[in-house]
Write a structure and sequence with these properties.
9 helices, 7 strands, five-stranded parallel sheet, binds adenosine monophosphate, 48% helix, single chain, alpha/beta
């Protein structure tokens, strides 16, 4: 089973991806996490993508597809994609790759959350750079201020969750990622899910 999670930045893709990948034993592939890890490890890919992430712009499709194909080449489980694809060209690249292996995408789950709600959520999001756990200072704060409940690491506000970058990411999403809804509707595997309620309720739906 291969699943794509689609939705605004801050719609809850990362949180849902963790719940669903555990529940269905899927490999969770987050291109955002891959890029952030490459940046902190100072690899050549990290150096190449860092400017795009801090500006809230998309990494070029050819580089994203190269990273994804390298990941998929060694993956034997079904995959849950979080933050990928983000353009129609990436979606077509993924379809071609899967088709060449006799595979495909079984479902695209669209987390439907209002724009105002995601802007508020992103500003109060904190993430643990060590174990990637996600918190929200308003709805799911850590037990101890600024520290991760799971690994004790210090929580950070992502560079790209700062207000001016949030606005850029939302507009990039509308221009380049929103057209994916029509693309997947055309393929008949698109399922909208209301992303407003708490994480567990969304996962059940
Ligand atoms: P995310 O954690 O999914 O919000 O991604 C953080 C940032 O990584 C994005 O704002 C982009 O700069 C970059 N990024 C992540 N996934 C992709 C992708 N599929 N295509 C292009 N850029 C991406």
């Amino acid at each position: 089973m291969n699943i794509v999670l689609l939705g605004f930045p801050g719609s809850g893709k990362g949180t849902q991806a963790k719940i669903l990948s555990d529940k269905f034993s899927l490999a969770h592939i987050s291109t955002g996490d891959i890029f952030r890890e490459a940046i902190s490890a100072k690899t050549s890919i990290g150096r190449e993508v860092s400017g795009y992430l801090s500006a809230g712009r998309l990494v070029p499709d050819n580089l994203v597809l190269e990273v994804i194909k390298a990941k998929l080449a060694t993956e034997t489980r079904g995959v849950l994609f979080d933050g990928f694809p983000r353009t129609v060209d990436q979606a077509q690249g993924l379809d071609d790759y899967f088709a060449s292996r006799g595979q495909g995408i079984d479902a695209v789950l669209f987390l439907d959350v209002d724009e105002e709600a995601v802007v508020a959520r992103l500003g109060s999001r904190r993430t643990c750079p060590k174990c990637q756990k996600i918190y929200n200072l308003l709805s799911s704060p850590p037990a101890k201020a600024d520290l991760c409940d799971s690994c004790g690491g210090p929580l950070l506000l992502r560079e790209d969750d700062k207000p001016e970058v949030i606005r850029r990411r939302i507009s990039v999403y509308k221009d380049q990622t929103e057209p994916l809804a029509a693309y997947y509707k055309g393929l008949g595997n698109f399922y909208p899910v209301k992303g407003g309620p708490g994480p567990e309720a969304v996962a059940v739906e």
